[in-house]
Specification:
heterotrimer, A alpha+beta (120), B alpha+beta (497), C alpha/beta (429), B: 497 residues, alpha+beta, FAD/NAD(P)-binding domain, D-Amino Acid Oxidase, Chain A, domain 2, Arc Repressor Mutant, subunit A, 13 helices, 31% helix, 22% strand, globular, C: 429 residues, alpha/beta, six-stranded mixed β-sheet, 10 helices
Chain lengths: 120, 497, 429
């Protein structure tokens, strides 16, 4: 099947056409980056997921988090479900792993912010 | 939730609040019923915020009398009750010699009504007073006694003072029926005796939150005053909504005009006003559209465009790019085009304050005094010795001299945390708005009391902060915080977190 | 009154970078005043990734990007006051601020750096007809509520405006279970980055409706729906194209405005196109010792450029203290200089002015174009002499552009008394 994509490699936003059975065959691109992007998008599209998690006893109510690496695009909602169920306790340090192997992706959920304990 | 009262006031707009405050001078058990969650939630919150001089109304009408008296009362009242009022003077401009007779008619009318200081001045003289008036302005009626007021400030101050002096306020209490009681229906013998000769058996007020009994009823129900009047009176009245839309512009270092600039009704219809507000914004409007729905406070593209065109006729260089909001209010217009005040025909003990459209805001204090006097006489009530006419408003930290502001924060650090940055409103002020007499229960309640969210970012920045303080002070979860009462929650859905 | 060498107003990315670079260049006591509870500014709520590719050659989230600067500021021992709102800056560089702990405080600085950032354009500025119910948020307010407070703003949302915050929030709300029905954009193109259109909308099947706007808001107490309509080339709604979308939330992402109340009170020259003060190549306003940088100056698209611009302001402020402090006529000795003219296709430039002294180095000129241009060039002229011509495949108002002027080129312009930047040829979309 021929898929149509918008290239995100630069502001030009080329309209790319790629056959998902022959991901090497890309048309509409203006540069090699576009071809590579299209290939990735049809073979193994991946995204970084970011969200917020509630912190108990923290100076802030929420701590921001991200997946430590990109995850397969079709696992985004599965990961979100796990992240939404997550509760952590202050202090949380930037880089702390809050959840390992999120939803079987092999990717961890890490804090992207430091939240200290709330002063009594 | 029942109760027996001497007086029940229906409606917590500026008129109801003014009557409540005047009634609180007397030894009467008074209750005010408001269907919304706060006072000042209907016509009183969306109008021109003008203290009219009093040349508009036909001599001899209630409007003429109450307008001029209300205007005269405003200074002292603003001192007693600590609300913002400014006598900035007004100009009614006309655009050619053919419109001059209309100005002269206003002048004559004003003189008959007892308005002081009126004069007709030339276009040049007017432009000397207001350099931004257009060249096309031919002449103007100058009314030095015209003024501007904060309509929220006025209404809330009246209500708080009434409450402090013993009037009971019930909110979210919509009245569904007013029924005159026969003597025998009165359960309480004593009440029946007391009421004899004045209010007959009194009235039963049915609300969505239970029934009340009262000797006297004051009908200050705004757009719905005809509904309650017609439940008891032998002579029906009819009130229809007239919508007025407005533009509000940002504060500027040098305001576009200092006076309130009206246009004389003429070739181009009624015209719109251009006025500064007591807070330094510029207000343009209103339109006048007769509609059927008493709740239809929508703005429309056509009306908003109309305001732009008309306002530009009298004043040049209006900074339209600095519009911060537009809104619409409904005026309660009675068929007879006059205030309906006093005893309702065929309904002893039932007093109307109906058909209160413009100049209702100006007239409210006078209407309050007039009706409270009538009721007190009818009830044989005496003035209380302990009536306190004074009410202190919420401190405005940003308006204080620096040293005083420093002292204030030292005493209470909450005044040092700025929550609304456009208007520089502190956490302390927002807290005060919630915790004081008749405190705010919603975002709009906060906005009307301390102006948090009223500024140029229109609550973009302060919403989370104000929500947090409201939730904390009211002991509610954030999900329960409303913009203005039931059905207006800010958060929907719940994130499951 | 306590004296500082430099007071920085705002502890966001601009303020932090400015303070650091000022210290690097020898400034002594520096005070950063931040109104929020922690420094980092808007980055604290921008929890998505994509920050820092230019500065750190890696993709960071907003809080991570901020943290790198916050740690450096801490290490450098720069004094920071949070929860502190500046209420006045005097021409004599007296800064008045309030907070809980100290109450009302006045300090004096040898140089002040304005870094207050920007705010969102509210609904009122759009004059959308209809009711004024609960459920209308600017995208950034919703972002704060969702990301920092952990609450949900609504179940079904429409987003007006396809600026980056609007796009980012479309994805964020979707991930949290809010159904985003559409993003409407009144212009024929999106103001957001391509990457965000793909990863925030396309990934989740959210339609982007170009040439569309909201013509009415329904619902008296809470939003019950919005009416969308197509617009013509003059951005006026086309009759008969209205359609109702039932929703309980309307998010507005319709532009950002530099926040310059303090700057205006100071009496600085303002640029109508940027909404910020006019500055010279040292990021210096016309008031001696008052510098500005970041979104308070003009709205940026990438935080990396904010950091660069702010670092320059910090450095120049430090140099100014060393060289010029005390000579209050300074702005005059450097002379009027020349104004950069925004020619055809250019909305504005920053800096707006090159002063007559120059500092012997390159000057980066940042600017935005006024429409979408393909296969065109950016050119810099002084009189008839073309100094720079840079080919561009595509130019769009959503992306900030920049070019560099060498000292030689600047000198030529000063001699000729003119410099003009414009867009040349190309197909206009």
């Amino acid at each position: 099947m021929i898929r149509e994509l918008t290239c995100i490699c630069c502001p030009l936003g080329c309209r790319l056409f790629v056959d998902d059975r022959h991901p090497e065959q890309v048309s509409g691109n203006s540069c090699p980056k576009g071809a590579q992007y299209a290939k990735n998008e049809v073979t193994d599209p991946r995204r970084t997921v970011t969200a917020s998690v509630r912190v108990e006893g923290g100076e802030l109510p929420m701590v921001s988090v991200k997946t430590s690496r990109e995850i397969p695009k079709d696992r985004i909602f599965a990961c979100m479900e796990k992240i939404r169920a997550l509760r952590v306790f202050a202090p949380v340090k930037l880089g702390d792993v809050l959840l390992s192997d999120c939803a079987g992706t092999g990717v961890d959920i890490v804090a992207t912010k430091t939240v200290e304990r709330r002063m009594p | 939730m029942g109760g027996k009262y001497d007086v029940v006031i229906i409606g917590g707009g500026v008129t109801g609040a003014a009557i409540a405050r005047e009634l609180s001078r007397y030894d009467l058990k008074t209750c005010l019923l408001e269907r919304e969650e706060d006072v000042c939630s209907g016509t009183s919150k969306a109008n021109s915020a003008i203290v009219h001089a009093g040349y508009d109304a036909k001599p001899g009408t209630n409007k003429a009398r109450m307008n001029v008296e209300g205007n005269r009362m405003m200074e002292e009242l603003s001192r007693e009750l600590d609300f913002e009022f400014q006598r900035n003077g007004s100009l009614v401009v006309c655009f050619g010699p053919e419109e001059l007779p209309a100005l002269e008619r206003l002048l004559e009318q004003g003189k008959q009504n007892g308005v002081e200081g009126l004069s007709i001045i030339s276009g040049e003289e007017a432009r000397k007073m207001e350099p931004n008036l257009r060249e096309e302005v031919y002449a103007a009626l100058h009314a030095p006694s015209g003024g501007i007021v904060c309509p929220f400030g006025l209404t809330i101050a009246l209500a708080e003072n009434a409450c402090d002096n013993g009037v009971e306020f019930r909110f979210n209490t919509e009245v569904t029926e007013v029924k005159r009681l026969e003597d025998k229906e009165t359960e309480d013998k004593e009440t029946a005796d007391k009421g004899a000769g004045t209010a007959g058996g009194g009235y039963r007020i049915r609300t969505l939150r239970g029934d009340l009994e009262t000797r006297f009823v004051v009908n200050a129900a705004g757009l719905y005053a005809d509904v309650f009047h017609n439940m008891v009176s032998s002579k029906p009245i009819s009130i229809s909504p007239r919508r007025g839309s407005y533009w509000l512009l940002d504060k500027e270092s040098a305001p576009c005009v200092n006076h309130t600039v009206f246009q004389v009704p003429g070739r181009f219809g009624k015209g719109v006003l251009v006025t500064p507000t007591v807070h330094g914004n510029l207000l343009l409007g209103p339109t006048a559209v007769d509609i059927d729905d008493k709740e239809d406070t929508r703005t429309t593209a056509g009306e908003l465009e109309d305001i732009r065109k008309k306002a530009s006729r009298s004043v040049r260089d209006i900074p339209f790019s600095r519009v911060i909001t537009s809104f619409a209010g409904l005026r309660a217009r009675e068929e007879g085009d006059d205030f309906v005040l006093g005893k309702a025909p065929g309904a002893p003990g039932f007093f109307d304050a109906a058909g209160i459209d413009s100049p209702g805001l100006t007239a409210a204090p006078a209407i309050g005094r007039f009706l409270a006097g009538q009721i007190a006489r009818a009830a044989g009530a005496k003035e209380k010795a302990d009536f306190n006419p004074y009410r202190k408003g919420i401190v405005k930290a940003a308006a204080l001299p620096l040293q005083d502001r420093a002292k204030l924060i030292q005493k209470d650090p909450a005044y040092g945390t700025i929550v609304c940055r456009c208007e520089q409103i502190s956490e302390g002020e927002i807290r005060d708005a919630v915790t004081r007499t008749l405190g705010a229960k919603s975002m709009d309640g906060i906005k009307r009391r301390v102006r948090a969210g009223m500024g140029r970012c229109q609550a973009g920045f302060c919403t989370p902060g104000v929500m947090e303080i409201l939730a904390r002070k009211l002991g509610l979860p954030p999900e329960e915080i409303c913009k203005n009462g039931d059905g207006s929650r800010l958060l929907e859905g719940g994130m499951g977190q | 009154m306590k004296e500082y060498e430099i007071v920085v107003i705002g502890g966001g990315p601009a303020g932090l970078a400015a303070a650091l670079e000022a210290r690097e260049n020898g400034a002594g006591e520096i005070l950063i005043l931040e109104r929020d509870v922690r420094t980092g500014g808007i980055l604290n709520q921008c929890i998505h990734n994509g920050f820092g590719l230019h500065t750190f050659q890696e993709e960071l989230t907003g809080p991570e990007y901020a943290d790198r600067f916050v740690q450096q500021v801490r290490k450098a021992g720069i004094e920071t006051r949070c929860g502190s709102m500046v209420i006045r800056v005097g021409r004599d560089r007296t800064v008045t601020y309030v907070n809980r702990e100290e109450g009302l405080t006045q300090v004096r600085a040898k140089a002040v750096i304005l870094a207050m950032g920007c705010r969102e354009r509210p609904r009122g500025a759009l004059n959308i007809p209809g009711y004024r119910p609960a459920g209308i948020y600017s995208a950034g307010t919703a972002q704060r509520l969702v990301n920092l407070e952990g609450v949900c703003v609504g179940k079904k949302a429409v987003i007006l405006g396809s600026g980056d915050i609007g796009l980012i929030m479309a994805r964020r709300l979707t991930l949290e279970g809010t159904k985003v029905l559409a993003v409407a954009e009144v212009m024929p193109y999106s103001g957001g980055l391509k990457r965000n259109i793909v990863q925030c909308l396309d990934d989740f099947g959210i339609p982007l409706l170009l040439n569309h706007t909201v013509v009415e808001i329904l619902g008296k107490k809470r939003v019950e729906g919005v009416v969308l309509a197509r617009v013509d080339e003059n951005r006026k709604p086309v009759p008969g194209t209205q359609r109702l979308l039932e929703c309980d939330t309307l998010l507005l992402s319709v532009g950002l405005l530099p926040e310059n109340e303090l700057t205006r009170e100071l009496g600085a020259d303002m640029d109508r196109a940027t909404g910020g003060p006019c500055v010279n190549q040292r990021m210096e306003t016309r008031i001696p010792g008052i510098f500005a940088c970041g979104n308070v100056l003009h709205v940026h698209d990438l935080v990396d450029y904010v950091s660069q611009e702010a670092a320059l302001a910090g450095k120049e402020a430090a140099l100014w203290i060393r060289e010029e402090s005390g000579r209050e006529t300074k702005a005059d000795c450097r002379g009027e200089g020349i104004f950069l003219q925004a020619g055809r296709g250019i909305r504005y430039t920053v800096p707006q002015r090159l002063d007559s002294a120059g500092n012997g180095g390159n000057v980066t000129v940042r600017f935005r174009v006024d429409g979408v241009y393909q296969d065109s060039s950016i050119a810099v002229y002084s009189k008839d002499c073309c100094l720079v011509r840079k080919k561009k495949r595509v130019l769009s108002p959503g992306e900030m552009e920049q070019l560099v002027l060498t000292a030689q080129q600047q000198d030529l312009c000063r001699r000729q008394g003119e410099i003009r930047i414009c867009v040349e040829t190309g197909r206009e979309q």
